[in-house]
Specification:
The strands form 5 sheets. This protein has a two-stranded antiparallel ribbon. It has 17 helices and 10 strands. It is mainly alpha-helical. A hairpin with a 2-residue loop joins strand 9 and strand 10. It starts with a helix and ends in a 12-residue tail after the last strand. The longest helix is centred in the C-terminal third of the chain and has 40 residues. It comes from Nonomuraea maheshkhaliensis. InterPro entries: Cyt_b/b6_N, Cytb/b6-like_sf, Di-haem_cyt_TM. It catalyses: a quinol + 2 Fe(III)-[cytochrome c](out) = a quinone + 2 Fe(II)-[cytochrome c](out) + 2 H(+)(out). Its EC number is 7.1.1.8.
Length: 523
């Protein structure tokens, strides 16, 4: 095994800071497994009715479920139980946030391109499963806040045409809330979903290891090498310290920042609800979409007795997340189809160098963010003394106008940043040194940019695009551009691909620089 270990322990890892973002999710998952194992020893996933007689005096004598009583016992009677509960909850939020930020890094730099499409799909599956894992864990304490979220889940199930009622009865074991949902969610939360997550994370890491890391453009970096530090000792020390740092931050949040105080909410009863209730951040988009959607419904065959499809629940529940997940899954293959680029890519793009992709990503973030913000429209209306109705109306307009504006603004910003790079390459960087020319003019001396910065800028490559419409010289369209779909593909390729702002300082046939020669330096 000496050759195997020698080869793999000396594997090179890039040293760019963005490559550590995925490790936030990985280390948070490890914390989740450890703290979840601790909590499993004391949590009782039952829905039987008991009268509380524990340490928390305000709830003594109150009837509640076994699950809620055991969650209170963990919080107040088990040594270190409340700290571990809060570490577990903060790690869950950090795990999902780490996944999202890591996916954004992958998307904006184009690291999902060949040969990493499979790993990209695995990452999307991890994200989707993390939402379900969070939903099941959020519901386990059976407090009033989690019960309200569970009620929304049941409403979403009932809104599905034809099979909604059957799905609800299957999940809850009868009429809502039934006696089975907490035990079933407990099995999903500690066994099935974590097992799948662990298998997918392992596959994700193995594929990453085999395919090698992507890296940012720069000095000495090519498609056939990786510039950085070896696994042992450099990257292992850095990664180990990062694990300890992530653990310390999570433990610090759990110690000084209260989260999910279930003893203040009280046990769940279907008849009670509280104002200002909010889900965890990653489910906020669903809350916002439900609040923004008008109360539309379809009565089949013209009568409510024949069957009602509540669009006010069905569309918010399925459309926003469906758009985002479907878009993430299809984007690598759609981009490959539009550009015709089937090459392997191990050097990633700076986001500014692919303005359309970056604009699409910011559009999706804006769409998600507005839904997330509107999930707190009642809190916004209350604190800023704004009409709740007007808050909803404004949100309905922004959900369409906001993403469109985000696309246009981001695209123009990317072009502006490309022009800045072209000016730096063409002129150099400002040195602050003023020189007087023989004829009396004063100019500022521009110095050559630092070698690593210049290499980063010059690593820019034009976005691939399909060949032109008369590539063969005989006026015959290339095969990729034949037919209505082919012509649409060619137009999309010309708009999406190509060089927008050349680095030589020229744009639209005109020189973008004037004055003294480029890269003039002083002694």
């Amino acid at each position: 095994m000496a050759g195997f270990f020698k080869r793999n322990l000396r594997k090179i890892f890039p040293d760019h800071w963005t490559f550590l973002l995925g490790e936030i999710a990985l280390y948070s998952f490890i914390i989740l497994l450890l703290t979840g194992t601790f909590l499993t020893f004391w949590f009782e996933p039952g829905m039987g009715h008991v009268v509380y007689d524990g340490s928390y005096a305000p709830l003594q004598g109150v009837e509640m479920s076994d699950a809620y009583a055991s969650a209170l016992r963990i919080s107040f009677d088990v040594r270190g139980g409340l700290l571990i509960r809060q570490i577990h909850h903060w790690a869950a939020l950090l795990f999902t946030a780490g996944l999202v930020v890591h996916m954004l890094r992958i998307f904006f730099t184009g690291a999902y391109r060949k040969p990493r499409e499979i790993n990209w799909l695995i990452g999307i599956a991890l994200f989707a499963l993390s939402l379900f894992e969070g939903l099941t864990g959020y519901s386990l304490p059976d407090d009033l806040l989690s019960g309200a979220g569970l009620r929304i889940t049941q409403g979403v199930l009932l809104s599905i045409p034809l099979i909604g009622t059957y799905l609800s009865f299957f999940l809850f074991g009868g009429e809502y809330p039934g006696e089975d949902v907490i035990p079933r969610f407990f099995a999903l939360h500690i066994l099935l979903i974590p097992g799948i997550l662990l298998a997918l994370i392992t596959a994700h890491l193995v594929l990453m290891w085999v395919q090698k890391h992507t890296q940012m453009p720069g000095k000495g970096r090519t498609e056939k090498n990786v510039v950085g530090a070896p696994l042992l000792p450099a990257f292992m020390a850095k990664s180990g310290a990062y694990l300890l740092f992530t653990t310390a931050v999570t433990a610090g949040l759990a110690t000084f920042t209260q989260i999910n105080p279930i003893w203040l909410f009280g046990p769940y009863t279907p008849a009670d609800i509280s104002a200002g209730s909010q889900p965890d951040w990653y489910m906020g988009f669903l809350e916002g979409s439900l609040r923004l959607m008008p109360s539309w419904e379809i009565n089949l065959f013209g009568t409510a007795h024949a069957g009602t499809v509540p669009l006010s629940v069905l569309i918010p529940a399925l459309l926003p997340l469906g758009l985002i997940i479907t878009g993430l899954v299809l984007f690598p293959f759609l981009e490959q189809w539009v550009t015709g680029d089937r090459r392997e890519h191990h050097i990633v793009d700076r986001p500014r160098n692919n303005p359309h992709r970056t604009a699409i990503g910011v559009t999706a973030i804006t769409f998600y963010g507005l839904l997330w913000l509107m999930g707190a429209n009642d809190v916004i209306a209350s604190n800023f003394h704004i009409s709740l109705n007007w808050t909803t109306y404004i949100g309905r307009v922004l959900i369409f106008v906001g993403p469109a504006l985000a696309y246009l603004i981001t695209y123009r910003m990317c072009l502006g940043l490309q022009r800045s790079d072209a000016a730096t390459i063409g002129h150099g960087v400002e040195s602050g040194v003023i020189k007087r020319l023989p004829h009396g003019e004063f100019v500022e001396i521009h110095a050559t940019p630092a070698e690593d910065i210049e290499a980063l800028m010059e690593g820019k490559k034009p976005v691939s695009m399909l060949p032109g419409s008369t590539e063969d010289g005989a006026g015959v369209l290339p095969e990729a551009a034949r037919g209505p779909l082919g012509r649409l593909r060619l137009k999309m390729s010309r708009a999406y691909g190509g060089e927008k702002i050349p680095l030589d300082g020229q744009h639209d046939g005109e020189h973008a620089r004037s004055g003294p020669p480029a890269k003039t330096s002083h002694d």
